[in-house]
Amino acid sequence: YQVPDVRRNALLLFGACVAFTVLNITVLQSRVPSSDAMLVAGLEVSAVCLPRKGGGQQPSWQSSNLEGKSIIVWCEILSVSKLRPDGNAFKPQMEVRILDADPRQAQGRLVEQAAEASKRTRGIDGAENVEWRESIFLPVKYKKGDFVQLVLRDEASEQKVALGETALPLSTALRMRRGKDFSEQKLRLVPIGERGEVADGASVLVRFRCFDLAEM
After folding, report:
1. Any idea which fold 69-212 has?
2. Model-level pTM?
3. Angle at 148 between CA 147 and CA 151, to 5 degrees
4. CA 66 to CA 87: how far, in whole Å?
5. Which residues of the chain have pLDDT under 50?
6. Which residues pair with 208 in a beta bridge?
7. CA 72 → CA 21, 22, 40, 117, distances in Å?
8. How far lies 37's CA from each of 49, 124, 190, 206, in Å?
9. Which pLDDT score, from 0 to 100, does residue 186 have?
10. Where on the tree of life does the source sit, at the highest rank (predicted)?
11. How far out from the chain centre does Cα 190 lie?
């Protein structure tokens, strides 16, 4: 083979490895432990935009502007506490949504409006305190005005009715404290709809991470 052909084939192989990795984490492994790493073209890397240990560098999504970049938001739903089950068959389920508008002042909190990206956890048996420890991966193009919305739903209901909601700017969700590779948030749910009393006073514990596809 001539050198240009070898170089082109190597680039094609690397691109295929990257594409498969994205498919793997966004579709095939949406419920992996937060400590898991992944393989990119044969190299083990953390799925959180982190430099290799000892590198002493900040990941680009913390140190520079992400505007317009393709990223994957990694949201780990840990638990919800202080729910008030109302006697109905109840299977709490958490939906993670990326919105291009602030739902906090909107009528209905935009819980049924189409999202830029969204995904739901599995439904689990209802109780006052419930735990998932489940990871959600959402591929998006970062925009400064985007919001992350968490919607508590009842999977046992016919319409997967929304019971409560909370939201924060995406930029806030991805703001890490020094020395941490994640942003942990405990967010109070706002009751929604006729059965909103189930979520009244409840809080969701969640961790956010991300990685920049350009760094892969």
Report:
1. Immunoglobulin-like (2.60.40)
2. 0.73
3. 130
4. 46
5. 1, 26-28, 30-58, 60-61, 63
6. 75, 183
7. 12, 9, 15, 10
8. 11, 26, 34, 19
9. 97
10. Eukaryota
11. 20
Q: Counting every residue, how long is the chain?
A: 216
CA distance 91 to 115: 23
How far is Cα 212 from Cα 129, in angstroms, rounded to an integer? Answer: 34
Query: What are the tens digits of pLDDT across the range 17-53?
Result: 656 665 555 444 544 444 444 443 333 333 444 433 4
User: How high is the pLDDT of residue 213?
Assistant: 74
The answer to whether 30 and 74 are in contact (CB under 8 A) is no
Whether 136 contacts 97, CB under 8 Å: no
pLDDT at 65: 72
**Left if phi > 0, otherwise alpha if psi is -120 to 50, otherwise beta: which for 196?**
alpha
Radius of gyration of the chain (CA): 19
CA 101 to chain centre: 17
Helix, strand, or coil (residue 147): strand
Q: In 10 A of CB 144, how many CB atoms?
A: 11
